Amino acid sequence: MRLKQIFLTICFIGCIIFVHQVAIAQKSDPLPSWNDGKTKTAIIDFVSKVTDATSPDVVPVEERIATFDNDGTLWSEKPLYVQLFFALDRIKELAPQHLEWKTQEPFASVLKGDLKKAFEGGDKAILEIVMATQTGMTTEEFKTIVANWIKTAKHPKTNRLYTEMVYQPMLELLGYLRNNGFKTYIVSGGGIEFMRPWTEPVYGIPPEQVVGSSIETKFEMRANGPVLMRLPKVNFVDDKAGKPVGINSHIGRRPIAAFGNSDGDLQMLQWTTAGNGARFALLVHHTDADREYAYNHGAEKALEAAKVNGWTVVNMKEDWKTVYPPETK
Amino acid sequence: MRLKQIFLTICFIGCIIFVHQVAIAQKSDPLPSWNDGKTKTAIIDFVSKVTDATSPDVVPVEERIATFDNDGTLWSEKPLYVQLFFALDRIKELAPQHLEWKTQEPFASVLKGDLKKAFEGGDKAILEIVMATQTGMTTEEFKTIVANWIKTAKHPKTNRLYTEMVYQPMLELLGYLRNNGFKTYIVSGGGIEFMRPWTEPVYGIPPEQVVGSSIETKFEMRANGPVLMRLPKVNFVDDKAGKPVGINSHIGRRPIAAFGNSDGDLQMLQWTTAGNGARFALLVHHTDADREYAYNHGAEKALEAAKVNGWTVVNMKEDWKTVYPPETK
Lengths: 329, 329
Description:
- The structure is a homodimer.
- With about 325 residues, the first copy, chain A, is of the alpha/beta class.
- The first copy, chain A, has 13 helices and 8 strands.
- Chain A folds into 2 domains: about 35-80 and about 160-320, Rossmann fold (3-Layer(aba) Sandwich); about 80-140, no CATH class.
- In chain A, helix 3 packs across helix 6 (about 120-135), helix 7 (about 140-150) packs across helix 9 and helix 10 packs across helix 11 (about 265-275).
- The radius of gyration of chain A is 23 Å and the shape is globular.
- The interface between A and B is medium-sized, with 33 and 33 residues.
């Protein structure tokens, strides 16, 4: 009898500890890097009402779709899009096989380090750079090239890996949404095959939940098996009015929450908030020249629409306790 | 003490019952509509080895991707693709608004009920019919049209709903794979927006796991909000060499198992089986003129490739105990 009593007592204590831990977990802050205020409250209020079974706004789990822009929303996009840094490194790497680049723009200026001149050609120059450096190989080869580059490539200002230039508050937000049954997607103007090799370890977003711009690929049967070749031809531009198209094509459901930072995200936020029931739209406003960057350029229309429509705007400087994750030594 | 003893006895009995139920569940047949034989064994052996943590062939859950063709693989495709029956019904419905169709082919022949003549124009005629009946509306409007049609449209031979002309053994296979951690996708030559309104209730496959052919859509901001318009222009043909392209675009991972029935699936099966590690490819061979249809036409190359590569071939007549689900009165 003595032993049984001891056993039951241990069980009882175990029970109390367990219940206590659950209570702590439930009460703990899901967004610790967000300062208290109306932005954080708006996020938590939205998630609470669409997940509370007794709420008139509750949304079935399968319809809890949240879409996130990448550049400027999940990681820094300044001084250049990371995919452009990748392209510039590729030009340097491939230059020995392209002696004609020494005199051919925009490559000549890139090789001389004169980016201002290289990008004078605008979108056309950028497209030319992307096509010259990111097509002409198989999809598997490209994946390996990206995966190897992203392992060591560093941001010119902070000297941290690009994959560490992600916003800690947004990582917490992704996790918070997933813990509440959301499926989180990236919907970016960036290249879909540039993002997929690293979004799972960095953001917890698997390849099948990444939507982006793409070039055409072609199935070819070779002697040692089939490949998909990356062709130098634009297939789809997942930006601006392209974002709702990309969402419809890949997801086939309208998101109930969308997160962006620029005019490139305007239509995604319009499309998301035009659906029935509870909706949430958020813009990250870059207001923090000390810890990140401060700029409105390219976000003017989106910020204006946020004002008109009552969308949530993150004031990075005020709303975020920290910008990047702590450095791992 | 008496009470405590009764309580413990009840607990003990409960435990035994629970363990027994688990044992039954584990032993019960996951594919009851499949006859025992080498086809069923091949499926179960594959699933066992990729899910057994002690197996050298074990595959992480996130990589357990299985892709299924739809027409002829998950439901009957004879005497016509279901989407064509839909198009023909749409022509009859829209005819009063298109008096010119009375004399214009292929519409005139469709309206006269002469399908042979209507389809003499081949793919061009079919494309014309699809464009005339399935574009020019918003994506939301099209979804409603499809959802309403599929609720009542019936197969001309069996007089059953098309959604009941699905293969019971394949429904069990989909469920068996999902119970073993697989993500199941449809990868069909059919229209992606024709399938998405009903694949979740019928197959348990959500819209975001449906890949198919598509027309172009365009974002438009209207006075009462944004819409996506369906344009009469082909965007992507998810058939033959297009299937690996569609898989790469939508999923971004190579499947480890693929299921088809025709030459349109050949490249999907080649692409799937060319990956590293354990792979599985299966063709449904239509050999059952009594219970379904018997034909090789359009599957000659795929069946030949199955022989050469040792892919699993379902002999519908011998391998399936039943073809369709029991009728619900």
